[in-house]
Amino acid sequence: MSPFDQHDADCRCEWGVPGLDSLAPAAVVIVVDVLSFSTCVDVAVGRGAAILPYPWNDASAADFAAAHHAVLAGPRRAAGYSLSPGSFVDASAGLRCVLPSPNGATLAVRAAATGATVLAGCLRNAAAVATAARERGATFNVCPAGERWPDGSLRVAIEDWLAAGAILRALPGRKSAEATLAIAAFESGQHSIQALLAASSSGRELIARGFGSDVELAAQVDVSNHAARLEEGAFIKLCGPAVQPRATGGFKECERPRASAGG
What we know:
By secondary structure, the chain is α/β, with parallel strands linked by helices. It has a single domain, classed as putative 2-phosphosulfolactate phosphatase (Alpha-Beta Complex), CATH 3.90.1560.10. 33% of the residues lie in helices and 18% in strands. The chain has helices at residues 16-22, 37-46, 61-67, 104-112, 126-134, 158-168, 177-189, 193-199, 201-208, 212-218, and strands at residues 11-13, 28-32, 50-54, 71-72, 96-100, 117-121, 140-144, 147-148, 154-155, 227-231, 234-239, 252-253. Strand 10 (227-231) and strand 11 form a beta hairpin. Helix 6 crosses helix 7 (177-189). The chain is globular and about 45 Å long.
């Protein structure tokens, strides 16, 4: 046992890949990257698309996309799909898109290697993800991805802390100290999420680059009644009824997206 593994709690919370690696094994890992990977996943799967996470700046991404009958997301300012959640608002049902990112996608790939059920969580689907997680296990590692400083080190991102808290408060069982503080952060800020994200470092950066609408999309809380599960390398939609934070039951895998004509 390690002092960092939070093994005596059912609900745990730690940052990024190093944090995930430090935690005791769990039945469910929830990857939280609000700006923007997890929000992209939520919007895309809600349209019937599938998102294939891939490590950032990996030259093999194009070959991976071709081998998996998928399109490869491009830079945020380019036409087509990207790490802008708004680029998936009109995604076609059946789309398969490889979406590399330095934080959420990289963390999702690492989480898949643990053998746990992997879900993508954000503010938009917090209650739905918690419901899906409860149906799939009794121990939960909720991992906010954070962002990167210019030197590549992890930057704590409040949007991920808030979303982690929103998810954790709807999960059953004993909470670690880290999970308890994430819940407290969300409960303190839940009535001003839009303003907090717009004023955060991550939000200000995106607004300055002309992506304020992405911040608005990402700051919507519990507007999605579906969750997204990583299955055979792709996040796909888990269907369920409209949920409240303590609703139970009803999530199942939807029809698997097929390769789109463009991919």
